[in-house]
Each structure stands twice: as structure tokens, then as C-alpha cells.
Amino acid sequence: MTTTEAPPEQERPIGFGRLLRKEDPRLIRGMGNFVDDIQLPGMLHLAILRSPMAHARIVSIDTSAAQAHPKVVAVITGADLAEQGLAWMPTLSNDTQAVLATDKVRFQHQEVAFVVAEDRYSARDALELIVVDYERLDPVIDVRTALNPDTPVIRDDLEGKTDNHIFDWETGDEAATAEVFNNADVVVSEEIIYPRVHPAPMETCGCVADVERVSGKLTLWCTTQAPHAHRTVYALVAGLPEHKIRIIAPDIGGGFGNKVPIYPGYVCAIVASLVIGKPVKWVEDRTENLVSTGFARDYIMKAEIAATKEGKILAVRSDVLADHGAFNGVAAPVKYPAGFFGVFTGSYDLEAAHAKMTAVYTNKAPGGVAYACSFRITEAVYMVERLVDCLAYELEMDPVELRLKNLLKPEQFPYTTKTGWVYDSGNYEPTMRKAMEIAGYEELRREQAEKRERGELMGIGVSFFTEAVGAGPRKDMDILGLGMADGCELRIHPTGKAVVRLSVKSQGQGHETTFAQIVAEEIGIPPEDIEVLEGDTDNTPFGLGTYGSRSTPVSGAAAALVTRKVRDKAQIIASGMLEVSVADLEWNKGSFSVKGDPSKSVTIQEIAMRAHGAGDLPEGIEGGLEAQICYNPSNLTYPFGAYICVVDIDPGTAVVKVRRFIAVDDCGTQINPMIIEGQVHGGLTDGVGMALMQMISFDEDGNCLAGSLMDYLIPTALETPDWETDSTVTPSPHHPIGAKGIGESATVGSPPAIVNAVVDALKPYGVRHADMPLTPSRVWEAMQGNHTPPI
Amino acid sequence: MQVNMTINGQEVSEEIEPRLLLVHFIRDSVGLTGTHWGCDTSNCGTCVVLVDGEPVKSCTMLAAMASGHEVTTVEGLEVDGVLDPVQEGFMQCHGLQCGFCTPGMMLTSKALLEKDPNPTDEVIREAISGQICRCTGYSTIVRSVHWAAEHQTAAPIGSAT
Ligand code: FES
Ligand code: FES
Predict the structure, then answer these.
(1) Which residues of B touch A35 (CB under 8 A)?
(2) B14: domain range?
């Protein structure tokens, strides 16, 4: 679709199709309700004092001047929290993290103390009055030397810790893979770095904590993508009874994984409200967001690919060094410390694969899984798609031809990879061909050849990715012991309107619309008659929340199945109303009619009234029309896509311009194509940021060099092209409506396409690989034949 | 100090600290929370309002500087229950997802359309290039502005009463 073409007038599908969003009428009027919009009577404001150093012992903290500030209500340090046993909290990967530093600070901008004051400005003023005496320690910044024997130990708080090692992990068959590599015609090795980046949602993280004095009930309005998981974690760590905790996630201004973890600021606000007895608001500023909350990536991947000289890919292996920062705050299923990196075998039929990984502590902010990465598939896909291009370079083969030669065939599905993942469904080649057709691939190559003759730098980059989303089966996947299943409850009111309650939480993905459409599709009630409730732990069933593109695969399935359960009951009631047996009824999306006699029918609305009315119901049927389920997915879903990127590089300035980007995605059955397109567009834009602009970097003292949006560059409308998107549809066989997740596909698939395009443009300079972010200076370096790793 | 300004056609007069930023004045003092705040460095544009019809980053202006001027926020776009075409366009073309950048994006678009009722893609992109959207990838915002351009029946800026 071109931008000048007006979209079609809204048709209102009762079920799947393009439907305008139910959340928009409030948002376009400025009537959303974001955390910072909440004002409660007597509410106080909290601000956090952060460490200026990356690694230092705290010698003393003097808060007296801050305490004396007329508008300050309280100043709290780590020592104060330690008295209550609250100075440390668990992370989502069973490590601990300081709420406020007690012994020493372990990354620049770590939380050291907080002030609660009557207004925002005074709280900030008072921070300036706190005097902290630090004794500098040598910081550990270079991840490659973090395990050297003479390196300072960052986590001396952990009993018996004598180094900076966190975990080792491996997958696949090392010996079998070595065997294939030893006998292969061609082996290509490359060190591929995915630098540290940050999701930087437009709304920063924050909360309002309100502990009711008499009942002791805590209400926490919070920027969380996982309200139920947060509630349980607070109950487990703070000893608060779980029924006395209510987490409300109101409108959220983007999350992208940044709003999955529990941050010290939330705990500080809760403590402050408990101690002071008034509501307390904490909202971080942009610098705090960038320098202290969940970063993403930070993998150094030594990667190798083996192939025959004809271009049959045989094996892939890698050795990864992972920088997890000062605390292991990775949000991933417990048995997957490297997330789903095991999907690094990509979309290809291999003979063998092996990966190993070492994760280490450094004096940098914690985090690790965030930024629409599908639990590290971003890194995995980037690695394999870069490797395939390196192989194409060595074989002097067209990268599309090489991929087409190796893509899995439709008859191979369900396909078990060499690392044990079962891809549910796929039909890859038509997706690749569709992208080529839209791009005019052959024509682009001709244009490129002509331009090369003239010394112009044009690049065409391709990626083909397979994602693994919708964590996950409870037998394999849990976070802190909580199974990754999701609940869903549906009530049909007497007049045939409905409310569906979900455990997940939208941060802009349009759940209020798509979930209403899923229910509508199954029961024939128009979406506008279905209210979708989520983000309030007192009023929604338990489940682990929205991240890793899991809402549609898990909660979407739950919504479809709970609706079928209600429909089954409705059918029994209808059989009573029409005086026929259940088997003699047929469903016509909104009504049951007698088979062979369509004039005899009852609508779902009539059934709902009967279910709540005074008349008789069939034997053994209770009144009411509602159901609840907890859905445990049997497998992940595996969306995929083919992306083609065209770039032009100015040979004089090395500035990369993304001229075109073609994305053909397959996320199975589509619920709302408009929302799917939007999800893809957003992810592609993220890809431009990561590939060309963004990096959270540090100097040798551990000072974060990307603490503002002037230093951490996010694509604007000028750096992004008009996206060209299309799709194919290969339903998931195990999902009740055949849908797969789509939220992260484009973030996963676009960086390799863009980098491949830049490297392709630089082919005349003999460049086979260059690391992100491909800023003008880094591209210029590559053109001079220099390769400087970004880490 | 005392500030007096018109916000969405209403006279507002408040006693404030001189250092108060316009964005905080609008949000916290006046209670119009549709104007958002997203950075410390004038880079994100979630705070954009119109001051005398011109888009201004309200985090970069003191409330005191707006005294005596006419401010339009997102809440002022709808007039007498009728949405501005820009608002309608953003809904029709999926120009928003989380909605956090949206008020600023719409106000800039509104100001652009007043000057250039039929802007090209390039002109629209240039106009919103001081603002960041993390969700939409901008193409749908560009489409939204075109939609509004094609359906212009808008009341002029500041006509809310
Ligand atoms: S708040 Fe970011 S530009 Fe104003
Ligand atoms: S819609 Fe979320 S930042 Fe623009």
C-alpha cells in the first residue's frame, strides 16, 4: 500500500479482519491513563540518587541536609532497607540485585538512596543535598577480560564468589558437529557482535504505590508487562500476603521487554508508601531509563558455518561470550539461561549444530533479555543470517540462491532441529519468492551492477528468519517457578454483551481489539459488544504476561478455547430452547439452528438471556453463561519471514540510506491485518535503529556513553523508508485458531537484512563483515579496511 | 509568580515557581495529561503542544514564557464533540499504537496542514522528524496525515471554547 492511497472505509468484521482499534478513541483525545497521569490525594514524589561510579565501595552517606529540606518527607538509604531485610531482591533469573546499594556500587547509575518529597522538583533538589563518600574500585568493563584471574570480583556479595563467571551453557552435539566441520569443503568463521542496545519505550518506567493503612492492602499502578508475575514476586520477596497486593497496569506507552523486570524504583516506592502511609509516585527520567533499566543483547559470537562447495549448508556452530552486567537480570524461562538462542540453526536443514556460551558479570547495568527479542532469537537469527551471507561471499553465490538451496521444505514439518526445537509449520520458499517479486530482485541486481561500474555504492540485503514464540509448555518453561500458562475468563451478560478477562497486558499492541475479535470469531457477538479487561490482578485470571510475542500464541489460544467452552454450554441451552437434541443443532456464527430447518434458530443473545432468566434450563445445566480456563501451550509457534533491504551509501560521507525495505511475514492465521502490519512496521524501525544507529556503550571507567536520546539515537521519520509489507499464511497446527505471534518478527528479522545490505554495498572494498551499529564512522572504517569491534 | 495563558480557549491563571516547565504546568497544575513527557533533552517530542499555532516542545519552554500566549493541547483538538480530521486520520490509518507519542504527532500534523493543506510524504516526514515514535515505524503516521489532508473540514487552531 502506498501512503497516498486512502485506507478502505471501515467494514466491521464479526471476527477476523481489518477492524479499527477500540483503544484509539481515548488515546487520540489525550484521554489515555498512563502511570504518570495518576494523581492521588496526598501523593508524594520519589526520586533516586544514583552512583556516579561504576565500581566503588560506599564509605559513608550523609543525608542530613536532604532531610532538612522543608519539602522532604523521607530519605532512605541501603542501610535503612537492610534493617528491614529489603536491601536485596531476586531477579527473574534467580540472582539477587540490590534495591539500594549497601556495600558497594556495581554499575554507574546504580540506585544508592531515595528521597520522598511533596513535589517532583523538590525531590530532585534534595538528591543534590545527599553526600556520598565513595572509594573507587577498578571497574570490569571489557567483557573479554572479565574472567581473567587478576580481575576484581564484582559480586563479592555472593557467598564464596571468586570470579565474574555466571553460567556456562551448551546445546547440540559438539562431536558430531566437529566431524561435519572437519570433512566440509568450505568453512567460514566470523566474530559477530550484537552490541548492547536498549528498548527505550517512549514512556519511561514508573509506578504509584499506595498502601492502605488499615487493611494493609497495596495497590501498585505500574508500567508492567506482567502484572500477575510481579504480584507473586512481591508476595514471595516482601512477605506481603498475595491477596493484599493489587497490581494495576494502566495504559502503557510501549514496552518492548523493558517493562518485564521488577526494578528497584518500584520496590522503593512500595517501601516508601508503607513507611509513610501515603501514596508515592516514582517515574524515572529518560537518562535513568537508558542507563539503569533492562538493556538487551551484548553477545560476542564466534560463529562458523560449514558447507559443500556447491552451497549445501551442513553445520553451524558458535561460542558466545555474554555480558550480563552487574546482576543477572535476564528474564527468560529458568531452564533457558541463554533464552531461545538454541534456534540459531535458522531456517535451514543442517546435519549438525552446536553452541556454547559463557555468561559473565561486568560493571554495567543489569538486564539481558529485552527489546522485542523473543528470548535471544534476535541474536541467533542475526548470527546465522550473517553467516549465510559470509558463506555466499566466499562461494561467490547470490545470497538468495544460497538460501533457496537450503531452506527447509514444506514436507519436512513438523521439523525437529539439531538442537531439539520442533518447528510447527512452514512453507518457506513461497515467502522468499514473494519478497523477491515485490522487490524486483533481479532488476535490483542489474541496477546494482550498473551502479558499481560507476563507483556508486548500492547494497541489497536479504534475511530469512524463523522465530520461536509463545512460551511456553509448562513442563519445560517457568519463570521463578511460575509455569508459563495463561488464564482467560469469559462472561456473557444477560443481554448478550460480553467481558473477557486476560492475564496478558498490551503496551500498544491493541489487545482490546484483537481479543474482542477472537471472541467474536468464536461466538458471533460483535467486537464492539465485547469488553476486554487486562492489567488488573484483582480482576483478571493469573498468567505470566506479555513478552516474547506470547499474547496471541498463549492468551489468544486461551481466549478461543474459553469461548468454545461457553459456546458448548450455549448449545445445550439452545437445544432446550428449540426442543431438539444437541447433535441436531448447527452453529452459524452467532446463532444455533436446527439442522435442515434454518427457520428454527436462537441467537447467542437469546441464549444468554435464557441462561440468566427464570425459565427452565436443560437437566444438569447451571444458570449463567461464562467459563474460565488456563491454557498450557503444547509447543511454541514458529512464525517466519523473508526480508529484503536496499541501501545506498554515500561514498564520500559513508552515510547509509535505507531506500527500500520489503518484509513478507507469515504469522499463520491473521486476526487483524491492520494491527499485524503495524507490529511489523514498528519492528522494522527498531531494526534500522539497531543496525545503523544505536548502541549502549561505555568508556573504560564504566561511564555509560548513551544516557540520553542525543547519544542513543532512535530512528525518526527521516531515517526510515516507506515500509513495503506483505504476508503469506501458514497456520500453526496446534494453535486453536492457527495463529502465531508477530510482535517481534520484524525486530528479529530486520537487522541482518540491513547489515547484509550494507556489507553487500561494500563488497567492492572487500568487506565480508562489519559490526553494528553501522554509523557513518564505522562504515567509513570498514571502507578503509579497518575492522574495529564495537565492544 | 503569576502566569496567565489561554489553554484550549480557556483562560488559565496560576501562581507558580518560575522554573516550572510548561509541560509540567500543563500536566500537573492544569491537569491536562494528554501532553506527555518522554526525555530530558528535547529529543522525543511527546510533549509537543501548539503555542500560538506553532508546534513547541513544552519541556523546553518555561510555563512563564507561555504567559500571555495561546496554547493548544491534544485535548483542544476535538471541537464541540467533532474530532479533528487529524484525529480521525490517525484512527483510520492505524497511526498510533501505544498512543504515547500521538498527541505530539497530531498537533505537529495539525500545524503542518494549516500551512500546507496538501503536503507530500517528504514534507510530512520532515515536519515530524523532531519527534520519535517507537511503535508505528512512521509510515502509518504519514498515511494518517494524508487522510486528514483529504478530509479537511477542520476548525482552525484555537477555536475550542
Ligand atoms: S519531553 Fe522529550 S522533547 Fe519534550
Ligand atoms: S504510538 Fe507508541 S510511541 Fe508512537
Answers:
(1) none
(2) 2-76
